Amino acid sequence: MTTVLHCGDIEDPDAVEPFSGLDAHFVFGNCDGDRSGLRKAIARAGLHLHEPFGHLELAGVRLAFVHGDDGVLLRDLENSGHFDYLFHGHTHRAGERKVGATRVINPGALHRAQPQDFSRSGSRHRRYRIGPHAMSSLPVPVPVGR
Predict the structure, then answer these.
(1) What is the pLDDT of the chain when averaged over all its residues?
(2) Phi then psi dihedrals of residue 138, to 5 deg
(3) Is residue 26 a contact partner of residue 7, using CB atoms and an 8 Å limit?
(4) Cis-peptide into 52, omega within 30 deg
(5) Looking at residues 27-47, what average pLDDT do you find?
(6) Would you state the pLDDT for residue 132?
(7) Full DSSP string of 17-66
(8) In this structure, what is the dihedral angle of CA atoms 17, 52, 89, 75, given to the nearest 10 degrees?
(9) Residue 35 contacts by C-beta under 8 Å, 6 or more apart in sequence?
(10) Which helix (H) or strand (E) holds 76?
(11) Model confidence, pTM
C-alpha cells in the first residue's frame, strides 16, 4: 500500500477524499482554518491525523513530518537525532539539507510552489520512494496552469 505524508495546508475538507484508499497521514498547516471539518473528513475517510507532528517507521526508516510554521518545533525535530528523514512544508519551496544524521526535506507544493519547477515531462518532483538505504524522487503529474 502507498503511504502518503501530507505536510499541511490541506485547506478544504473536500481535498481529503482523493486520499481515500491510501495510507495517508496528515498534519495541520497554518492555512487550515476549518480544523473541525478537516478532522471529520480525515476520520470519515479512515485516514490518520497527527498533531502537532507525525512520525512513523516504514521499512526500517524513521520518518517525521510537520508543517513547519512552528520554527521551534521544526528545529527541535531536526536536532532530535530520532529521525532518518524529516519532511516539512509551510514555505512551499522545495529544499533539502542535512542536520546531523537527519535528512530534512521540504518537497514544495503541487500548486502555489515557488519557483514553478516543472521537468520536461510537465511533472514536478514531489513524491519520494524511501527504502532502508536510499530515497529517490518520483514525478507527480500536475496539469499545467495549476
Answers:
(1) 83
(2) -120, 145
(3) no
(4) yes
(5) 97
(6) 56
(7) GGGTTSEEEE---TT---HHHHHHHHHHTT-EE-SS-EEEEETTEEEEEE
(8) -170
(9) 28
(10) helix 71-79
(11) 0.81
C-alpha cell belonging to residue 109: 507544493
DSSP lists the bridge partners of residue 25 as 5, 48
For residue 130, the model assigns a pLDDT of 60
| Domain 3-141 CATH (choose: 3.40.50.300, 3.60.21.10, 3.40.630.30, 3.90.1150.10) | 3.60.21.10
Please count the other Cβ atoms lying within 10 Å of the Cβ belonging to residue 26: 28
Q: Which three cell numbers stand for residue 56?
A: 512513523
pLDDT for 52 beyond 50: yes
Which residue ranges make up each domain of the chain?
3-141
Residue 90 CA to residue 144 CA, distance in Å, equals 22
